[in-house]
Design brief:
Elements (H helix, E strand, L loop, with lengths): L4 H7 L9 E5 L9 H13 L14 E6 L17 E4 L4 H10 L4 E5 L12 H8 L2 E5 L10 E4 L7 H7 L2 H6 L15 H10 L5 H12 L8 E7 L1 H8 L9
Parallel strand pairs: 1-2, 1-4, 2-3, 4-5
Antiparallel strand pairs: 5-7, 6-7
Helix pairs in contact: 1-2, 3-4
């Protein structure tokens, strides 16, 4: 993976060891559009506490919130164990914010949806304002209009996560990965394959082809540059309130 430390500081100022990243998803394989932001958050999680790479075996504190239904497994981004992919069977903004608050999210990315003025349950909005340090708007395509943050991969390994996410179950089953180091990895875990199988009905083969073509269209020499908008937490919550209620922008 090749996303450098200055990019982390620029995207996530004052990242600390208790930060948790949350990604709201409301369209098929939507999280692929936030690939590089996810990779930065994951890198920041490990960089801030070196023991996470050496003496302990932990997956990053990142959470995906699927709105209304599942939109395809994103576990290849290290949303693991499966509880890190929260499948909300509702688009009720109150339930979405409750789920975000329950998991103590401190950095939040929401899809590019219209802002909507809503009321949340008492104190839930204030809890989010008090805790969330950074908020972003992303687009499932990988590019937002009027973006003020660009993140580009400079190594083809940065496309590993979307490539694996879009692989059909049959391919993953035939080419299971084992741990060369002896340390446990999710791909060698039967529970991981079971989760991928469980989410397989979220998507169709046509969805995979469409999303892959959209990703490929961004590539220059095999690399992708994504754009995001940094927004206030208040704006993020207003856009979150439209997640799952409007079509892709």
């Amino acid at each position: 993976m090749s996303l450098c430390y200055p990019e982390i500081i620029h995207a996530f100022p004052n990242w600390h060891e208790h930060d948790r990243f949350g990604l709201v998803i409301d369209e098929t394989f939507g999280g692929i559009g936030a690939t590089h932001l996810l990779q930065l958050a994951t890198t920041a999680y490990y960089d801030v506490k070196a023991s996470r790479r050496t003496t302990v075996t932990v997956y990053p504190e990142i959470y995906a919130f699927h709105i209304g239904r599942g939109y395809g497994a994103h576990a290849h981004y290290d949303f693991w164990p499966a509880r890190r992919e929260v499948i909300l069977k509702t688009s009720d903004h109150r339930e979405i914010l409750d789920a975000i608050n329950d998991r103590g999210i401190t950095r939040l990315a929401v899809p590019d949806r219209p802002m909507r003025d809503v009321e949340h349950r008492p104190k839930e909005e204030d809890a989010a304002f008090d805790r969330i340090a950074s908020a972003f708007v992303y687009n499932a395509s990988g590019r937002v209009s009027d973006g003020d943050l660009a993140i580009a991969g400079n190594d083809k390994r940065t496309e590993h996560n979307p490539r694996q996410t879009l692989r059909p179950l049959a391919e993953l089953s035939q080419n299971r990965i084992s741990s060369a180091t002896g340390r446990p990895i999710k791909e060698a875990d039967d529970a991981f394959l079971h989760w991928i199988r469980e989410r397989e009905t979220d998507v169709t083969d046509d969805d995979r082809v469409r999303v892959q073509a959209r990703r490929d269209a961004l590539k220059i020499d095999g690399l992708v540059e994504e754009t995001y908008r940094r927004v206030s937490v208040a704006e993020a919550l207003k856009r979150l309130a439209s997640a799952g209620r409007t079509g892709p922008s």
